Amino acid sequence: MDLATLILIVVRASVFLSVLAMGLATTWREATYLFRNRREFLLALLSLDVIMPLVAVAFVSLLNLEPPVKIALVALSVSPIPPILPKKEFKAGASREYTLGLLVFAAALSIVFVPLATVILQPVLGVQLKLSVFPVASLALVTVLAPMTLGIVVHRLAPKLAARVARPLGIVATFLLIITVLPIVIFERKAILSLIGDGTLIAMAIFVLVGLLVGHLLGGPVRENRTVLAFSTATRHPGIAVAIAHANFPQQKLALAAIGLYLIVNAIATLPYMVWTKRHQADHPKVDAGLPAKI
C-alpha cells in the first residue's frame, strides 16, 4: 500500500466519523429539509450545479492552463459540498436545518449529476472524460449518506448515547483530517508552487469569490441561508474532484496539486466573508431583510 492510498483511506475514515458525529445530533426532518422546500431546492441547484460549472468552463476556456489543471478546476465545480463544511458554517451562525439539508441534498444529487456533468463538459474541455456512476455513488454513500443515516437512527433510538459520543467522534475526525492534509501539502509543495504564476492561482481565487457571491445572492432573504449557500457554492468535495482527475490522468500529479492549491486558496479567500457574516450577525442578532433570524 503506497502513501497516496493510505492517505485516501484515512481521509475517508475522517469524513465518515465527521458526518456520523453530525448525524448523532441531527433529526430526519433537518436532513430532508431541502427536499420539502421547492424554492430553496431550486436555488441551491442553480447555485451549486448550474452557475459554478459554467464559471469554471469560462475560466478554462479563457486561460491558458495545463489540461490536468483544467480537469481539476471543472471537477471541483461539479463536485458536491464537502461533509466537513457544516462546522465552518455553524461557526458563522448558520441554521442547522438548512445546513444539514443542503449537505444531504448535494450528496444525493451528486450520484447522478457528477457523471452527467462530465459527459456534457467533454466537448468544452476538448478531452475524453470518464467517470462511471459507481465511484461517485459509493463515495457519496460512504462519506455522507450512510454515516448521516446511521447517526440519525442512533439519535432517535438512543439520544443519550448519541449526545455522549458525538463530540469525541468529531474530535477524532478532525485529528485524522489534519494528519492527512499535512502530508499532501508537504509532498506536493513543489508541484503546488509550480502552479503559481500561470493563471491557476488567480482563476481559483476568482472561482471562490464568485461562488461566495452567487451563493449569497441566491440564498434568499434569511441571513443564515445566504451564509450556508455561499460557503457551499465556493467550497467543493476534494475527494470526488480527485476521483475525477485520477480517472482521467492517473499519472499526472499536477491535478492533485491543483486541488491542493484550491483548498489553500479557498481557506484564505473565505475567511474575510466568515468574519463579515459573524460581525453582521452580532450587529443584527434578530432581524434581517425584514424576517426573523434563526439563531
What is the β-strand count?
2
CATH class: Mainly Alpha
Which strand order do you get reading across the main beta sheet?
A: 1-2
Residue fraction in strands: under 5%
Q: What is the number of helical segments per DSSP (H or I, 4+ residues)? A: 14
| Class from secondary-structure proportions | mainly alpha
CATH arch. level architecture: Up-down Bundle
Query: Which fold name fills CATH's third level, the topology?
Result: Na+/H+ antiporter like fold
Major sheet description: 2 strands, antiparallel
N- to C-terminal separation? 47 Å
Large-scale geometry: globular
Which regions contain 5 or more consecutive residues with pLDDT less than 50? 286-295
How is the secondary structure organized here?
Layout: H1 3-23, H2 28-31, H3 38-62, H4 67-78, H5 85-91, H6 96-125, H7 133-157, H8 159-187, H9 189-195, H10 200-218, H11 223-234, H12 238-248, H13 253-269, H14 271-283, E1 287-288, E2 291-292
Antiparallel strand pairs: 1-2
Q: Overview of this structure, please?
A:
This protein has helices at residues 3-23, 28-31, 38-62, 67-78, 85-91, 96-125, 133-157, 159-187, 189-195, 200-218, 223-234, 238-248, 253-269, 271-283; strands at residues 287-288, 291-292. It contains 14 helices and two strands. The chain has a single domain, classed as Na+/H+ antiporter like fold, CATH 1.20.1530. A two-stranded antiparallel ribbon has the order 1-2. By secondary structure, the chain is mostly helical.
